[in-house]
Amino acid sequence: MKRFLKKYGHLWILSYGFIYLPWFIRLEQTVTSHYHVIHSSLDDRIPFNEYFIIPYLLWFVYVAGAITYFFFTNREDYYRLCIFLFTGMTLSLLICTLFPNGTDFRPVVDPDKNLCSRIVSILYQTDTCTNVFPSVHVYNSIGTHIAIMKSEQLRSRRLIRTASFVLMVSICLATVFLKQHSVIDGVASALLSASIYPLAYAGCAQGREKTRPEFIR
Predict the structure, then answer these.
(1) Euclidean distance between CA atoms 91 and 84, whole angstroms
(2) How many other C-beta atoms are found inside a 10 Å radius of the C-beta of residue 85?
């Protein structure tokens, strides 16, 4: 046990889940009416596309996979990624607590149309249209890609870095094409990412710009 704790003592930070999940579930249960509707005219111009459920669900693998990879390969990158993710997630919960919000433009989905439509229908039933501003999906996707781009171990893995960029963009687009989020939610997440980036990555860049996230080279 001592050997395990010495080697994997950084596991402790994942206990944040015991803070985030109860808080988020509580918001889902209580924010059901009398909330601020997040909606822009651009949202009405974006068509619904059920096939974006694929990258939307890949978000779970993307974020969890990155955390797991850095957990076993680079403790510093792991901590920086967790600090970035968990700080933004906490601020998102705080915003939703003080400023209850949601959307009003989910379409009626025919679950018998195809498999993707069926999955979207299930998503709509299990996930409310509230607590959307800012989008955690967008924020965490940006944070995960930044961590991959900042990794010295992955610097020469161009295929991984490019795939990460494509997946990040796909996930961000999925949030609006599935009508899960407003464009406003995504913009807010991008601004939040830019604000948290210097905190999580202060002093880690050598020979590169320290305050500008590098998305892809």
Answers:
(1) 11
(2) 24
What does each C-alpha distance from 180 to 49, 74, 145, 171, 217 come to in angstroms? 11, 34, 21, 11, 30
- Please give the model's pTM, rounded to 2 decimal places: 0.91
Which H or E element spans position 106?
none
* Cα–Cα distance, 69 to 65 (Å, whole number): 6
Structure tokens at 184: 């406003």
* Nearest one of 136, 127, 140 to 63, comparing CA atoms: 140
- Listed as own residue / partner, the contacts of 123-127 with beta carbons closer than 8 Å and 24 or more positions apart are 123/53, 123/56, 123/178, 123/180, 127/180
Over residues 103-146, the pLDDT tens digits come to 999 999 999 999 999 999 999 999 999 999 999 999 999 999 99
Q: Which two tokens stand for residue 23?
A: 């808080």
Contacts of 74 (CB under 8 A, 6+ apart): 151, 152, 153
> What are the two backbone dihedrals, phi and then psi, of residue 101, each rounded to the nearest 5 degrees?
-145, 165
